[in-house]
Specification:
86 residues, mainly alpha, 3 helices
Length: 86
């Protein structure tokens, strides 16, 4: 088998690899990030002593982290849905 044939064969094998474990690994990593964000939000709310998101004095940092958390949860849901379809 020539070197070109071997390279093409390896390329076909790589393309046929099931990517589900990678998606699952990414979702797991994002779940860990979710926990870190929740802890950070709790710490910020404790620091500022304002937990009500409707309060005008609610922390800008906590509000920003909450938006990021919402986006992260949407991404996780999308990844998990993609994993279930496979």
């Amino acid at each position: 088998m020539s070197i070109v044939s071997q390279i093409r064969s390896v390329g076909r094998q790589r393309n046929s690899i099931d990517r589900t474990p990678s998606i699952e690994n990414l979702a797991t990593a994002l779940r860990k990030t979710e926990l870190v964000l929740l802890e950070s939000i709790d710490a910020e709310e404790e620091r500022t002593r304002v937990c009500d998101q409707d309060d005008p004095h609610y922390s800008t940092l906590a509000r920003s982290m909450r938006r990021r958390l919402d986006n992260l949860r949407k991404t996780i849901a999308t990844l998990e849905a993609a994993t279930l379809r496979r």
